Structures are given as C-alpha cells and as structure tokens.
Amino acid sequence: MAPAADPLFEPLVLPCGVLLKNRIAKAAMSDSLGDGAGRPTSAQGRLYERWAEGGVALSIIGEVQGDPFAAEKPGNLVLNGESDLEAFAALARRGSDNGAQIWPQLGHAGAMAHPPIGRARGPSALDLPGLRAEALSGEAIAALPGQFAETARLASRAGFGGVQVHAAHGFLLSQFLSPLFNRREDAYGGPIGNRMRLLLEVVHAVRAAVGPDLAVAVKLNVTDRLEGGLMPDESLEVIRALDTTGIDLIDLSGGTYFPGAVSASDSGGSGPYFVDFARRARRETSVPLMATGGFKTRAQARDAVASGAVDMVGLARALVVAPELPNRWQAGRDLEPAFPRFTDPPEGGVTAWYTMRLTEIGEDRETDTPGALQDAIDRYEGRDAARVATWRDRFGAPG
C-alpha cells in the first residue's frame, strides 16, 4: 500500500488561479534589509532566494510602503512611482526560484510610523506614553485606497505573483478596525461595519488595479490582545465582509506592536495561536485561510492543515532558525527545530535578534550557535540610527 500523502506538501490552487506548490508560507516579517532609502538590496534578494531554495511555497515581504512617511522602520522598502522598478523585479525573480511565490505586503504604519522619518497619523489622535499621533483628515483617508492600489499595480509590473494587504499587528488598517484606537465619529468610526470600511475600500481598489489573475491576500488580526481592542467576534464580521471581495487568502494573526503591548510572537505558549479561531472562520467564508503564529513543529503544521482548519500555515521564526525547514520536513528531518532561549529579554530584544539573524542568512554567514542577545540589539539599533540619515536624504524630513 502506498504511503498516505502528506497534506503539508499537497499543492493549493487559489481562487485567482495562482498555484502554491505546498502549504507552507514564510509569513511577513520586517526583515529590515532595505538599503535605507527604500530600495531592495542584494542581501535581501539572497534571503528570499534562500527561502525559495529551502522549499517554501510562498514568501511575503513585510512592510512594503507606498508612502515613505508611513514607514515602520528605515529598513522598509518603498514602492511607488519614483521607485527603481528593476530593483524590485530582481527581488521578485530571486524570490520566485524553485517554484516559489513571493508577494510584497502592502503596509502603512499609521500611528506607528517611525518618528525620525515619518508622520505618525492614525484614525484618531493619540497621546500615550511612547506613542503620539495626529488624526487623519477625511481627505487623507480618501486618498489611501488609491495609494495602496498604485503600489499593488507596480508590484504586478515588477513580476510579483501577488500582494498582501496588511490589516494586522496595530498598523494603520488594523488601527481603523480597533475600537481602542479608532474613536472617529464619521463613516469610518463607531460600529465594526464603519471601522472596516477603509479596509474594504483598499481591497476593492487593489483588486481593480491588478485584475483578476494576481493573488490578493489580507492579513487580519484575530484579536489585538489589548483590553478594549478588536476581539474575535468582530474579526468574524470582517471575514464575512471579505468573503465577497474576490480575495484569495486570509492570513489570521494577532497582537500589536504598540509600546508595552504583548505581541503574539513574544507571548510564549506551546502551540499555534489561531487555529481554533480558524475553525470558526471556516464556517463564515469560502476564501482559503492561513494561520500565522506559534507553529514550532511539523506535527503542529501538518495537523492544522489535515484537520481542515487552515489551508496554509505561516512560519516566521522557524524559518529564521532553519531557512530550509520545508525541505527538511518533507524529508522527515528536523521535525522539531531548536529555537534560541533568552532570559529576561528587554522589550523588542528578541525581535532584534531574529532580525539580525535574517541579515546573516541573506549574507550566507549564519551559524548554528546563537550570538549574544545584547550584541544583536546593539547592532540592530545602530544600523537603524545610521539609516535615518540616508532615508531623510532620499525622502526629506517628515512634515
């Protein structure tokens, strides 16, 4: 009798016709490998080439901005009418090696725009410890769908197979969805039907811009993990609305990166975070589902797909520890990869370590021995500080 097929390595055809060769995606991370002026680098191209060679079906590039004054970090990419499209095309080619797909994540940091290079603006004014922002005007909100659509159109021209609209982790579209951060009294605030209005307008504009054959995904918070923030029942309402928009994949995640908040990736736990919610969402939509967060073993990933809860699993830190993990899993090796352990890390410290590990992978110089956490933090912070001047030289000072 032939062995049963492994559901993790069965192909998936998205509604638009794009083929994903297996069920493993490299979820979006802010790899911080732009050149400091919004352009892709050779190391960044090599990073996504490494993941493609390692067997992922899909890699998503975190935080590709259309507006340089809405960047989350000075290592983000900027894709707009003034960008070097050939540099993005080179990144698309390298990330598409070995039958992989590579998609940019369409981002806008909103209230979390990096202050030295950006304008912190969100749905409502904020004056919190470590976070101040102005409220977006109605005119500025009306311009946003077109801005997202233009970046998506350019991504298609550069040869990417799809795009992901970022509506999670406390960035702009997530801020609009959250009752904690959206206190507007116009058509974009109040009940969830109003708070999701901008997301739906963006999705419709992106789909119209790229046509029916490019994959369009949405990354959505299941929960903000903050008292008074977006909760799962409201997320289900958003999913019901997204069901009729012609998108191809919903990536379920959660948490925010607001100062002092606990992000899902730093919250510990022994298993995937959002698979149970995905089972609820499955009853509300026919759109393929992906869950990102907490997958640490092949058994967890396989069970999530085999159970029918999700169609794709999103791996992030597991693919930083082992970029070739899908190939290893398919060969029956490294079923439970080893993750580094840190004692009492400062806020953001673990993220800094993983980000610097991405640099090492992109430069083909990673080792099996984790480096010191404080050294990674110092290099991460020093690199960002140096890039601020480069960013401001390229785009000017934020107004």
Automatic annotation (TrEMBL):
Alphabetized UniProt keyword annotations: Flavoprotein, Oxidoreductase
Flavoprotein found in the keyword field: yes
MF terms (GO), sorted A to Z: FMN binding; oxidoreductase activity
Record carries keyword Transmembrane helix: no
Domain named NADH:flavin oxidoreductase/NADH oxidase N-terminal: residues: 8-335
Superkingdom of origin organism: Bacteria
PANTHER family (UniProt xref): BINDING OXIDOREDUCTASE, PUTATIVE (AFU_ORTHOLOGUE AFUA_2G08260)-RELATED
Name the UniProt record assigns to this protein: 2,4-dienoyl-CoA reductase
Native species: Palleronia pelagia
